[in-house]
Design goal:
Structural class: alpha+beta
CATH topology: Rieske Iron-sulfur Protein
CATH class: Mainly Beta
Helix content: 10-25%
Mean pLDDT: 82
Strand content: 25-35%
Shape: globular
Number of domains: 1
Distance between the termini: 55 Å
Strand order of the largest sheet: 4-5-6-10
Low-confidence stretches: 1-30
Number of helices: 2
CATH architecture: 3-layer Sandwich
Number of strands: 12
Length: about 160
């Protein structure tokens, strides 16, 4: 079998060559839109109550899990002195949950969201990754409503 080098990768077969070309030409966001749609399809229905607003510190965060197995959906709500935001609990880099310990989504200074798997940091207000292996990507937002001190899933 003849070896060749394409895109800096040694090749042993035509099949591997196709895989190498595919991997090297894929954009940074490959698969993100499909994953986003799959996650959002598992989100709880609009009107689902999450918790009381007072259950989350300022600043703070609280995680929620719905279902189990392949139907499991993980999300969290972040509260600041100005607002509350909700996101799918999955890092856009490795698609693992962000927290290692229950409800520990924020840095020590509580000024950014932290992925404890690889140290990625995200803005509280928009979920945009400012540093780490997924810099430039964002967490998937979940619409929420706050009425009468209760946080619920909002219509999309």
């Amino acid at each position: 079998m003849e070896k060749s080098v394409q895109n800096g990768w040694p090749q042993k077969s035509a099949h591997r060559e196709e895989v190498a070309v595919h991997v090297n030409t894929t954009s940074k966001n490959f698969g993100d839109e499909r994953r986003r749609e799959r996650w959002l399809s598992k989100a709880p229905q609009a009107g689902t109550q999450l918790c009381a607003l007072d259950d989350i510190d300022i600043p703070g965060a609280k995680g929620f899990t719905f279902g189990d197995g392949r139907d499991r959906f993980d999300m969290f709500v972040v509260r600041t002195d100005k607002d509350c935001r909700a996101y799918v609990n999955a890092c856009p880099h490795a698609f693992t949950t962000l927290e290692t310990f229950t409800d520990r989504f924020l840095t020590r200074n509580k000024d950014q969201i932290l992925c404890t798997t690889h140290g990625a940091l995200f803005n509280l207000e928009d979920g945009f990754c400012t540093s780490g292996p997924c810099a430039g990507k964002s967490l998937v937002p979940i619409p929420i409503d706050i009425r009468d001190g209760e946080i619920t899933i909002a219509p999309t």
